[in-house]
Specification:
Blueprint (H helix, E strand, L loop, with lengths): L1 E5 L4 E14 L2 E6 L5 E14 L4 E14 L2 E6 L1
Parallel strand pairs: 1-6
Antiparallel strand pairs: 1-2, 2-3, 2-4, 4-5, 5-6
Length: 78
């Protein structure tokens, strides 16, 4: 699936991933390939990404919004 993480200033990540773990307002949750469409508010915490080569990358955010639609994940982070 395609993931894009953007801030008001710039795009901090764009690429194909296998898994995304995000800090929701009520705790952590994960998005995998073929996830149902959703919109969610994000809290302060760490985004964990597993790429196609099974390598993990982490980004700290102060909150934001997530949209999942047709194997495309958009994170608008603060």
């Amino acid at each position: 699936m395609h993931l894009e993480i953007i801030t008001p200033d710039k795009t901090i990540f764009a690429g194909e991933v296998q898994l995304v773990q995000l800090p929701g307002l009520d705790g952590l949750f994960e998005i995998l390939n073929n996830h149902a469409p959703m919109i969610a508010a994000l809290g302060k915490g760490r985004i964990k990404i597993q790429d196609e080569g099974k390598k993990f990358t982490f980004f700290e955010i102060n909150g934001g919004v997530l949209e999942v639609l047709s194997n495309k994940v958009l994170v608008m982070a603060e």
